[in-house]
What does this fold into?
Amino acid sequence: MDPSRPPQAPRRPRRPNRVLVAVPLLLVVVVTVVDILAPPEVHLGPFLVAAPAVTASFGGARLTAFVGLVAVVAQTVVAMVRTTATDLNHTLQITALVLISAIVTLFAHRRERHERQMTQLRSVAEAAQGVVLRALPRRSGPLRIASVYLAAEAEAQIGGDLYAVARTAGSTRLVVGDVRGKGMAAVGDAALVLGAFRAAAHRQAELPDLVADLEGALASGVNGLGGRERADRSEAFVTAAVLEVPDGAPVLHMVSCGHPPPLLLREGRVSALEAAQPGLPLGLASFDRSGFVLESFAFGPGDVVLLYTDGVIEARDGAGAFYPLAERLAGRSGDHPEALLRHLREDLLAHAGGFLGDDAAMVAVQRLAAP
It folds into this structure.
């Protein structure tokens, strides 16, 4: 779900295309006509079994049963025209057709029920994620901000990508992160981190102290204090980049917690903001005694910094090549953050053939020129 868009109605299973529905019915008509016109020693009735079988591959139980009934009626008509409905050969064909139609109708019913369950699960997960992941403000002090969230096409396996912005007295703070795993557990871990960020961003004066609060919130949550407990604590961790942009200084402060480095776009050139001393992901920081290190980078008027999750750079095309984000970002100097993300969104989906294997989030931040 893209939080920048208005809420959408719950998804419903897709209805079969009318052209697909016409295929098995046309097959019944062709087989029936040819069977009636064929010589007495030629029997094409067994081919009617294909009609309900094909329908079950894309249609629901009702449609499959209807096509099966049409096929049975067609076979009965053939029997009455060629001999009689009680002829042994045609009786066996009709019986087999009834049994096979009933079996494939049952399979279609099970598949249809599974699709409804997956649709419901994904709708619930998207709704929960939409509550957790609030829309970002378009302006924060001297900054323009835009964001985009692309959900993976993987049944109900919603990911745990997260981002948030908080305004302090003289700066703007941002967090972008990616929770390990998928599903509702990942959304829950994202909620822990985002809740702690929104609560502590205004309270902590130093960025490393803020990140320590995020680490503590995640650790307490996975150890049962937040209502959930995991046998293996290493299963829950979050890669994150926490940034602070002061209003009055052309600089950007960052604490990296195992997250892909942000990309800085300046005058058409792209450079990665590589942390010299990156920390471990949130949830694993107890294994690192060095703590969280603050690093600073120049960030002047007109500069754009792009934050993203690994679902962007790990998107593959048909040949298995990863999405070249830095290459596609180069030369886009001067774009409004929303226009930049619109371009990257369309380009990313085109690269991946319209389907992403993992959720992908991007946040673009531009510093405006001083008045």
User: Anything to note?
Assistant: Residues 224 and 230 are 8 Å apart (CA to CA). The radius of gyration is 29 Å. Confidence is low (pLDDT under 50) at residues 1-10, 225-233.
